[in-house]
Amino acid sequence: MSPSKTGTSFEEHQLILEDITLTFGGINALSGVSTGVKKGEIFAIIGPNGAGKTCILNCINRFYHPEQGRILFEGREITRIKPHHIAGLGIARTFQNVELFGHMTVLDNIKLGRHVHLQSGFFSGGLYYGKTRREEIALRQEIEETIIDLLEIEAIRKRTVHTLPYGLQKRVELARALAMKPKLLLLDEPATGMNLEETEDMARFILDLNEEWGVTIILIEHDMGMVMDISDRICVLDFGRKIAEGKPEEIRHNPQVIQAYLGEETLAYSRLGA
Q1: Do the bridges between strand 42-46 and strand 233-238 make them parallel or antiparallel, or are there none, so unpaired?
Q2: C-alpha closest to that of 213 among 221, 205, 201
Q3: Which of 7, 55, 124, 244 is within CB 3.0–4.6 Å of 236 for a Cys-Cys bond?
Q4: DSSP letter at 264?
Q5: In Å, how far from its chain's centre is CA 271?
Q6: Domain that holds residue 222
Q7: For position 229, which CATH number holds?
Q8: pTM of the entire predicted model
Q9: Does 165 map to a domain?
Q10: How far, rounded to the nearest angstrom, does the alpha carbon of residue 156 sit from its chain's CA centroid?
């Protein structure tokens, strides 16, 4: 297969962004961003506040439509696919702020993530018999034996979500995303608002998903310790432009990255994450 404009082939990269440009009222949120994410890697996107990190995820998810460029997933262009079809392709998402149904139980919230794959029709669903009932039983068993077990939330599966502390709610949101059976998982600040122990748990869950389930992960996170510890490669944005990309050790000592985070006056004396 021929190479893309980014100089990478579809065999090498599961997701490719080519020259993505996005503006709001004349302000450039993204300016010609190009990158590729390899199948099975943890790919982090970092940058100061307002750098355009979440805009990247919103373009992949089709919440935003870029004015320029294209996005390819497994060799297929998805730039103009309707947002509600993205999940069916195997792309799942969590958000900066918890987006759960607070009045529902943990288990019911997780089960909602599988709706894009259910095969039952309207009639059988309304009467809850036959195929619908069999699907429901199989789904519940799968969730309890895999997702709930992996994320260690067995004890709270019957709890109402709004009664849970924030750290557990973030874990439930991750569980709902996993119920979609993702090939590519977009995590928008999964450790925000967590204490050290909760952050370490979240990092462990992300590594397990990547290593044991083979899920490709794009991670946005402000905790640089976590990013440097678990990422295979890192892309750095600043004011909507990509200023660096590489392995954690390369990014840690990149002068442009240090300047973006710490400012010109400390460039000669500081190292990111040191």
Answers
A1: parallel
A2: 205
A3: 244
A4: G
A5: 27
A6: 15-266
A7: 3.40.50.300
A8: 0.85
A9: yes
A10: 24
